[in-house]
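Q: Make up one entry.
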Amino acid sequence: MGESQQVREGLDHPVIDVDGHVIEFMPAILPHIREALGPAAFQRYLDQPSPIARILEADTATRAATGTPQSAWWGTPAANVTDLATAVIPRFMYERLDELGIDFSVLYPTKGFGIAGIADAELRQGVCRGFNDYYADTYAQYADRMAPAGVIPMHTPDEAIAELEHCKAIGLKVVGFPEGVTRPIPSPDPGNLSPFMYPGQAWWFDHFGLDSAYDYDPVWAKAEELGFAVTCHGGLGNMPTGSFVSRTNYSYNHIGSFAQRMHHMCKSLFMGGVTARFPRLNIAFLECGVGWAAILLADLLEHWEKRNPEALPSLDPASIDWARFEELMRTYGADDLLAKAGDIDLDAALRALPGTGVPPDDMDDWRFLQVSSERELVDRFVPRFFFGCEADDRSIAYAFSKANPFGARLQPVFSSDLAHWDVEEMDEVVAEAFGLVRKGVLEERDFREFVFENPARLLLGQNPDIFVGTAVEAATAPLADAARAAQAGVAG
């Protein structure tokens, strides 16, 4: 018996993994894509050059000449062919779950990365549907312990809603959303000198919340109606420019990139008011850790404290007493500043000092949050967001830090990342996670929340019946009852 299995047998609760992966056997998927697209579009899909392949196959000289960043290489198990086969063959993974110490696992794509970012709308929607049909058809017989995540294209709310409804109809219980969509700037200005834009920039990245090109509230409402948590996984669609920058070093590009990208998405949804308008919708940011989220929450609080509507008047240049300012300058600055400046229009020079800028039409940056206190802001954030953390992520401890405002405990969720390069041995992942308890990084209470309660709540919050008929039904029953009561309270 391996160490992970021993760890699991020593626990009084299940281990629920909300972010494993499969490596799809493409010959088995192509018939589903053909069915979804129809013959003509399917042939067009086969004939198109793959942007993923172009990135993966670019050599060093090509990357240096074109500025193409170094993408992943040697990204899946190799020497351990058992783990490779586990990632590819559903039945084999199913039979190994006890050995891995995992009771239930949600599985995301590998070959399906990028499909929600296909530019051609017909192909994007059809390819996502084909993959989703494959997942539903292939994994249905293993539903008591494994749940594949359908991929939701998000270029428009309509296509997202259509695929959400399809995923529900074919029996998928979990869906994955991309982190955003690359969109053209309506009227790009080649002479724009903004230091925050690339010279000649003609594209921007839409994170579906603040300043989005569309109102995505109907998508969140549909997800809630159908019983889907909003789980967001990097790589399903477009990748924001700037997250990978090195042309030679994949590790440099990968380190922190998921946190960087999900930081923007989380801010966009939060400050766009999604958690205010959907106070029961659970949203997960996967494979990105939680340390950045603790920093983000503290940063949000500090900014709200100093830039909420009631605090803004103290920053208004109209409130400056210019006569008093000039008096202070002449009293304390005459011997150095004014002497060096020479003969100047002092009043004009002083008035040029404050950082004024042009305020937006609506100066309340927090208008979508509907909060009037620091506590309310924290309560908009903490209960609704979940953060995927891998087994060896020591920053999980930040979720439970006493430094978090109002004693907040953020909600990390166990994300095994099975099938990818950062899992050296699948049967060691749970043991590695429990090692954080043995090393004193986590308390046993923290570990229980990480591998069981938070993953269960993430999924149960939208669908209290999600674990009915599964290996974790009995263990999750009290949490399911609490989710049903919460739903009834909202409905009432």
